[in-house]
Amino acid sequence: MTEVRVPTLGESVTEATVATWFKKPGDAVAVDEMLCELETDKVTVEVPSPVAGTLGDIVAAEGETVGVDALLANITEGASAAAPAAAAAPAAAAPAAAANVDVMVPTLGESVTEATVSTWFKKVGDTVAQDEMLCELETDKVSVEVPAPAAGVLAEIIAAEGATVDATAKLAVISGGAGASAPAAATAAPAAAAPAGAQDIKDGPAAEKAMAEAGISRDAVTGTGRDGRATKADVAAAVAAVTAAPKPAASAPRAPVSADDAAREERVKMTRLRQTIAKRLKDSQNNAAMLTTYNEVDMTEVMALRKQYKDEFEKKHGARLGFMSFFTKACCHALKEVPEVNAEIDGTDIVYKNFVHMGVAAGTPTGLVVPVIRDADAMGFADIEKAIAEKGRRARDGKLSMAEMQGGTFTISNGGVYGSLMSSPILNPPQSGILGMHKIQDRPMAINGQVVIRPMMYLALSYDHRIVDGKGAVTFLVRVKEALEDPRRLLMDL
């Protein structure tokens, strides 16, 4: 006898409601076949069978509230349970072997609850191999590829391109590896059974209770649960849609456009990444007391040092020696002296970071991303260069994970690679500082009473004036300038 228990429901979730049983006592079940569905305050959780056998008694009936690890049912193990079904319908044994497999939204990352289906690489009827990429999802921060969980034929696409799906949604159905003829039989039977089956679909008790309390009809709720069942979260979304006040315009109304001009315009929907970039940058301006201070640095010594050792450096470490490692080390050095630039505000507290997770802004075809180099203050030049090169490559290929772009404590943005001579970077919240690098340009400078030509770069530090005073901001830039104009200071920790 094998016990079926409530699985882990998620952080801070301690109980759930048994919404639907898909099997009844005496039914044969296969390993990983869905037995029932649980509803929590946030998500719907399917409970698979841990073994093959026969469903014995159901301990927790539909509508009951259960805690984590509570007993739901018992299963009698053994192949004998499946034998009667096979004997009773030998003709149906072949189609049953080609089981359908659901393609679900993969884990999207901490705090990410939805995504947009951006591209399907396969169409209905296509044969797919296990782990072959089916589609690509776009979240607020990264693109996520969805591989096929099993080999077979793509029988149905549930979430079309452009659709917004939550973290537990079903994307498609694969008819398991029985060849190209399987979809016809698989899709014909459901089509014929749909009218009768539709009458048997029953929403979970938590969803029904929520609809009754909100006074909202079932027609106004879009079900995202199994077979279109409504969940508590679906009801909450429907209520929010009904009661939400009209949103203010995101920007000023467009001026009138002539028909001739309109015919020559192209309207493209903003990607979720671009929408998120716009929102985060505007929120940063609205929430922080942002100020920018400037300085300039003579790059003569850094350029000479790089020229002298770049070939030997690359030969030994397998990485090119660029300017970013110098700036990263200089910033880490300065952050030790001015720790408030490496801190953040949490309510009425200031959180000082005794480490540096350096964000390095990178432009990609889809928008600006900021991969994080963790513990950059404990890294040498070679490790920093390797990390920046690897993160930059993954950013351009759209392969960065959510974890790789979270937790930064300070950011460097290099607009100089695009030719920018001067700019004021915007903070990357909740960070309190961001350094803007710019183009290196030869300029006449007065050195010891003589006018000489030097390679100069303007530096810009944008900072949150709520936590960083002007003195601290200026001191930080001066320390960065000193370290770059005399790189030996970095070695001496001066």
TrEMBL record:
Pathway: Amino-acid degradation; L-lysine degradation via saccharopine pathway; glutaryl-CoA from L-lysine: step 6/6
EC number of this enzyme: 2.3.1.61
Catalytic activity: N(6)-[(R)-dihydrolipoyl]-L-lysyl-[protein] + succinyl-CoA = N(6)-[(R)-S(8)-succinyldihydrolipoyl]-L-lysyl-[protein] + CoA
Lipoyl-binding domain span: 1-76, 100-175
Swiss-Prot/TrEMBL keywords: Acyltransferase, Lipoyl, Transferase, Tricarboxylic acid cycle
Keyword Mitochondrion: no
Signal peptide stretch: none
Statement: the UniProt record of this protein carries the keyword Transferase: yes
Start and end residues of each Peripheral subunit-binding (PSBD) domain: 202-239
Cofactors that this protein relies on: (R)-lipoate
Gene3D superfamilies documented for this protein: 2.40.50.100, Chloramphenicol acetyltransferase-like domain, E3-binding domain
GO annotation, biological process: L-lysine catabolic process to acetyl-CoA via saccharopine; tricarboxylic acid cycle
GO molecular function: dihydrolipoyllysine-residue succinyltransferase activity
One cellular-component annotation, GO: oxoglutarate dehydrogenase complex
Matching PANTHER family: DIHYDROLIPOYLLYSINE-RESIDUE SUCCINYLTRANSFERASE COMPONENT OF 2-OXOGLUTARATE DEHYDROGENASE COMPLEX, MITOCHONDRIAL, DIHYDROLIPOYLLYSINE-RESIDUE SUCCINYLTRANSFERASE COMPONENT OF 2-OXOGLUTARATE DEHYDROGENASE COMPLEX, MITOCHONDRIAL-RELATED
Subunit structure comment from the entry: Forms a 24-polypeptide structural core with octahedral symmetry. Part of the 2-oxoglutarate dehydrogenase (OGDH) complex composed of E1 (2-oxoglutarate dehydrogenase), E2 (dihydrolipoamide succinyltransferase) and E3 (dihydrolipoamide dehydrogenase); the complex contains multiple copies of the three enzymatic components (E1, E2 and E3).
Function, in words: E2 component of the 2-oxoglutarate dehydrogenase (OGDH) complex which catalyzes the second step in the conversion of 2-oxoglutarate to succinyl-CoA and CO(2).
Family as reported in the entry's similarity comment: Belongs to the 2-oxoacid dehydrogenase family.
Name listed for the protein in its UniProt record: Dihydrolipoyllysine-residue succinyltransferase component of 2-oxoglutarate dehydrogenase complex
Organism: Pelagimonas varians
Gene name of the record: sucB
